[in-house]
């Protein structure tokens, strides 16, 4: 068992024979320099990735993450990933970490070494950060202008707003800006004043009895956690809705959360310096669901 596990993967074409799967990846030391400096990932952030939660040995929602990886690859014109290969790689990596506790399992696919005809892949599993306090007490969030109007994803597909690309430098800059402003995290707002998403999370709010989230067409990444929560709530007969939300709508919500695969549901306790109501009961229910084994 190891707390950190890294595999270097030779991404196979979709029609590769299954006999090649086991030999298509190997464990490496994460600092071994196995990733070439002339790969398009370190060069340009030109690749796509997914981060999956491993909870007590169970990898959460493998298929939704693989479907989104395939969609991100399509949007960035990378070769279609061989999902059979990635399923095996994910299973093997998860088997190497302790069967108790939370881990973050990242899979990535880059355009490969310049000139980029052969993709590179890797898997990196690390212990999950301790999210107990943010899940229970909540987080302070500031709104930050993303500088593009709602719907920019459809008008300007080259912005790749619906793909989970390796180009996260501006997302990280937004989190640093939030910290500079004394908060824990940020919510991006469109230039025309609509709530979009966090730099690494989806935004959900409870307005009356309805749980709402901005539509993916607003120009955001469609969150697997948000989809899973919507499916869970719908299964309970509760109302969910994709809805455009202004910052005032979010400020006036009965409760709101940032949600993502490893963090799960973190209630927003403060928005731009003003307290927000935290629904502790709903938060505990959502996190109990999100931490339970999900496929
Ligand atoms: N939006 C962005 C920009 C993200 O980076 C993430 C996750 O990292 C999410 C939303 C939430 O996605 P998921 O719930 O699949 O983790």
UniProtKB/TrEMBL annotation:
Keywords, in A-Z order: Lyase
InterPro entries: Aminotrans_IV, Aminotransferase-like, BCAT-like_C, BCAT-like_N, Class-IV_PLP-Dep_Aminotrnsfr
Keyword Lyase: yes
rRNA processing keyword on record: no
GO molecular function, a single term: lyase activity
Family: Belongs to the class-IV pyridoxal-phosphate-dependent aminotransferase family.
Entries under PANTHER family matching the protein: AMINO-ACID AMINOTRANSFERASE (PTHR42743), AMINODEOXYCHORISMATE LYASE (PTHR42743:SF11)
Name of this protein: Aminodeoxychorismate lyase
């Amino acid at each position: 068992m190891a707390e950190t596990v890294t595999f270097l993967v030779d991404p196979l074409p979709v029609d590769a024979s299954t006999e090649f799967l086991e030999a298509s990846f190997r464990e490496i030391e994460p600092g071994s320099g196995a990733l070439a400096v002339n790969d398009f990932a370190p060069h340009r952030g030109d690749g796509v990735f997914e981060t999956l939660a491993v909870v007590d040995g169970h990898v959460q929602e493998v298929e939704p993450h693989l479907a989104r990886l395939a969609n991100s690859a399509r949007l960035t014109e990378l070769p279609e990933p061989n999902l059979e290969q990635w399923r095996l790689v994910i299973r093997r990596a998860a088997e190497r970490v302790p069967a108790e506790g939370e881990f973050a399992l990242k899979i990535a696919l880059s355009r490969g070494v310049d000139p980029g005809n052969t993709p590179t892949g890797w898997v990196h599993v690390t212990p999950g950060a301790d999210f107990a306090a943010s899940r229970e007490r909540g987080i302070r969030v500031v709104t930050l202008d993303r500088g593009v109007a709602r719907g920019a994803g459809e008008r300007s597909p080259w912005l790749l707003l619906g793909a989970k690309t390796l180009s996260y430098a501006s997302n990280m800059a937004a989190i640093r800006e939030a910290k500079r402003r004394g908060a824990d995290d940020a919510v991006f707002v469109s230039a025309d004043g609509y709530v979009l998403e966090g730099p690494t999370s989806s935004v959900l709010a409870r307005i009356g009895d309805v749980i709402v989230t901005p539509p993916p067409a607003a120009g955001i990444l469609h969150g697997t956690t948000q989809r899973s929560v919507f499916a869970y709530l719908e299964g309970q007969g509760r109302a969910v809705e994709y809805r455009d939300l202004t910052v005032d709508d979010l400020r006036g919500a009965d409760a709101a959360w940032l949600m993502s695969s490893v963090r799960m549901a973190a209630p927003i306790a403060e928005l731009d310096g003003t307290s927000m109501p935290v629904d502790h009961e709903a938060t505990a229910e959502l996190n109990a669901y999100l931490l339970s084994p999900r496929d």
